[in-house]
Amino acid sequence: MEIRPEEAIGYWLFYSQRCVEYAFFEVLKRCCMEHSKPYVVTPPQWGILTVLFFENDGLAIGTLSQRRGFDAPTITGIVKRMEQNGLVERRHDREDRRVVKVYLTEEGREIMPSLVTAVAEFQAIMKQDISPDEEKYLIAKMQQIIANLSTVGPGTGDRFHLLPGHFYETE
Predict the structure, then answer these.
(1) DSSP secondary structure string, the chain?
(2) CATH top-level class for 5-153?
């Protein structure tokens, strides 16, 4: 059986994900540059900012890890870079000093409206010439692929189910 990459769903999902990731990074970078920021917000940092800004400021590293679908050491590294850029601060929990919570700083709160606008414009560009029905269909099919992949190996489905809720809505 011959499989041509350009005829495989996985190829197009991977390729489109890479295109989205690259374009998304460029949008975030441009927004930071337009506001004369000495830093660039990366897509993983955007994910953390959205959770803190829209859902709940002051979350533990473990909770952020679960919400974003990364392991705790990866989230810790991302948060450390965000802290160096003045976007967030880490504080020990008052009740349990072993728990470190992440909070938006004033800088983090100030940049969010501009980032949200830039991301909304990016979403609009991505959805150009795609009807609302086509968008719903595409999302449903991608969710079906994720569900199908949950049977591939141990833990696969557990990790993938964390991905929805990426921008604003929660599961």
Answers:
(1) ----GGG-HHHHHHHHHHHHHHHHHHHHHHHHHHTT-SS---HHHHHHHHIIIII-SSEEHHHHHHHHT--HHHHHHHHHHHHHTTSEEEEE-SS-TT-EEEEE-HHHHHHHHHHHHHHHHHHHHHTTT--HHHHHHHHHHHHHHHHHHTTSSTTHHHHHTTSTTSSS---
(2) mainly alpha
Lowest mean pLDDT among 11-15, 105-109, 145-149: 145-149
Rounded Cα gap, residues 137 and 31, in angstroms: 31
Strand order in the sheet with 59-60: 59-60, 100-104, 88-92
Rounded to an integer, the average pLDDT of 102-120 is 96
Given a cut of 80, is residue 162 above it in pLDDT? Answer: no
Domain boundaries, the chain: 5-153
**Whole-model pTM above 0.90?**
no
